[in-house]
Amino acid sequence: MSSWATFGGDLHLDLDAGRGRGLGRRAALEDALRTAVRDGRLAAGTRLPSSRALAVDLGLARNTVAEAYTQLTAEGWLASRQGSGTVVAARGPQPAPAAPPPGLAPRPAVRHNLRPGTPDLGRFPRTAWLAAARRALAAAPDEALGYGDPRGRIELRRALAGYLARVRGVRTDPERLLVCTGYTQGLGLLCAALRERGATAVAVEEYGLPPHHAVIASHGLAVRPLPLDEDGADTRALDRTGAGLAVLTPAHQFPTGVPLRAARRAAAVDWARRTGGYLLEDDYDGEFRYDRHAIGAMQALDPERVVYAGTAAKSLAPGLRLGWLALPADLVEPVARHKRRADGQSGALEQLTLAELIDSGGHDRHVRRSRHLLRRRRDRLVAVLAERAPAVRVTGLNAGLHAVLELPADGPGEAELLDRARRSGLALNTLGWSLAPGATPAPARPPGLVIGYGAPPDHAFEAALDALCALLAP
């Protein structure tokens, strides 16, 4: 059987897949043929149907097929022979792919994603986002498509100022807001600005995200961990750190889930005022609180000493690469200067679309639906574990997209469970992975797993719970 006979039956499916990714008819056909040549389904020398015959078979205009053939011939994928039609071109030997650097090595295959911090991407509000994008683009001035203010589009900064005041109690205005490509960039920009001012260290909660610790260190700043207990980070210890900045997750500590108590918040703000330091409030999932009223942003206690950081990664999708900082007045210029040096500005079209989504109420509606779904998933996780893994204690449940599973002392530890999880295709984090450099966990703190319940699509959620319970079985 010829290569075309083997591949041709799949072409309809490949075209549908391309159209599903938003490609036009011609682009989808070109993509399908390139892929088939690249992966060997269409061997060199294989004769393709005439443009007329393939157009009839696929229900396309003949010109569409002819233009695709012409483009792929120009790129060297196909060759046109007088009297022989169009054939797959012979391509020289391809170099073996280089091994990725260790930090960029692909993760093991994942069957069930229970990593914390990621929403169900299949629930992204595509229809509402597309409608908002059309409205935003139609109304955008021409200058919005050029280089602009490194702080971001004024439309989004205005929308965010109103939204953050209404939803999180943040005290700011559009002139103090800076749009960045997510929290990680915002943290780096702030570290760079404070390093210029003489800062040498940053205080962090003893449990957090290692990539954030790495960002701090990459700017030449020491990472100084703060002890953590049932009242949150011990901010009374800030004076001993020598830090110029303290990074906190006061509404829902990551990953333990405890909120920062009022006295600890007051102690942190008092430290910043006395020393001239700053606090960075990472409000990574402040919109998702379930069992009581939301805890207001700590930034409202002193907008001149507290930087508020938010992101669309949890409420919408991390791939949008949209985050924001509400800055004290004296940090606006230095942080904006570093943003200009880094990448000039964040994407204008994404900013305009998010502004329109917020102003139209579409963002609020999506967050309400997501909050309802996440609460149901959290309750289901707790119920299943209570029935099938009763020795495991579940904590950190009042908010967010994740929970901590405290492991029994007589069972397997974090390292063994993580190894078993990887071999079974179950992606999750351990509590120990989150430990900050130099931190020593309290002897009384049990080992644990950090389980995200936001990422699996609805149809796969029960299977993910089954895999988790199998992992925890004695």
Structure description:
It contains 14 helices and 17 strands. Strand 13 and strand 14 form a beta hairpin. The strands form five sheets. A seven-stranded mixed β-sheet has the order 4-12-11-10-9-5-6, with helices on both faces. The protein has a four-stranded antiparallel β-sheet with strand order 13-14-17-16, covered by helices on one side. The protein has a two-stranded antiparallel ribbon with strand order 1-2. By secondary structure, the protein is an alpha/beta fold. The protein starts with a helix and ends with a helix. Helix 6 crosses helix 11 and helix 7 packs parallel to helix 8. It folds into three domains: 86 residues, Winged helix-like DNA-binding domain superfamily/Winged helix DNA-binding domain (Arc Repressor Mutant, subunit A), CATH 1.10.10; 119 residues, Alpha-Beta Complex (Aspartate Aminotransferase, domain 1); 238 residues, Aspartate Aminotransferase, domain 2. It is 41% helix and 14% strand.
